[in-house]
Write a structure and sequence with these properties.
Largest sheet: none
Strand content: under 5%
Shape: elongated
Helix content: 55-70%
Radius of gyration: 24 Å
Number of helices: 6
Order of helices and strands: HHHHHH
Number of strands: 0
Distance between the termini: 19 Å
Structural class: mainly alpha
């Protein structure tokens, strides 16, 4: 996308406030509307805590998956597999976008499905086995979610 030209003649001085100097803006050149700002220092996330959470989810996930298989509900089995299948690759993953995607999309889709279509037993398994781990991970994941997209 080509930067749009900014008509500097339309800039007016704001009384009593700092203003954009048209001479300086002219020297700067056209404004890049696709500009991503450099970020303030990023808040560090404890990837170790996230890794421990993912390991716990796998640990308890196999118990819940076994329960789903024993129930004979193919939809519940599918929901468990969909929620668990990317977790091994998230352990040790430095790409925060993958962690955000799991949290905001894959985990959310699982919670929505269990809440809407899951049996009472399936919902109790989620609350007993997954919820405590998700709660422990929530603070670190929220830090990732709150980080702005920045230029590298």
């Amino acid at each position: 996308m080509k930067p749009r030209e900014l008509d500097l003649s339309k800039l007016r001085q704001s009384l009593g406030k700092d203003y954009a100097d048209p001479v300086k803006l002219e020297a700067h050149g056209p404004f890049d509307w696709n500009y991503l700002p450099m970020c303030s220092p990023r808040v560090e996330v404890s990837m170790h805590e996230l890794d421990d959470g993912y390991k716990m989810l796998l640990n308890v996930g196999f118990i819940v998956l076994r329960d789903a298989i024993q129930s004979g509900s193919s939809e519940w089995i599918k929901a468990e597999m969909e929620m668990l299948h990317n977790i091994p690759s998230l352990i040790g993953e430095s790409n925060s976008e993958r962690h955000k995607y799991y949290w905001l999309h894959e985990r959310r889709a699982y919670v929505d499905w269990i809440s809407k279509y899951g049996s009472e037993y399936a919902r109790s398994r989620m609350k007993t086995f997954y919820d405590p781990t998700w709660e422990a991970m929530a603070k670190e994941v929220q830090i990732l979610i709150d980080q702005p997209v920045c230029a590298t």
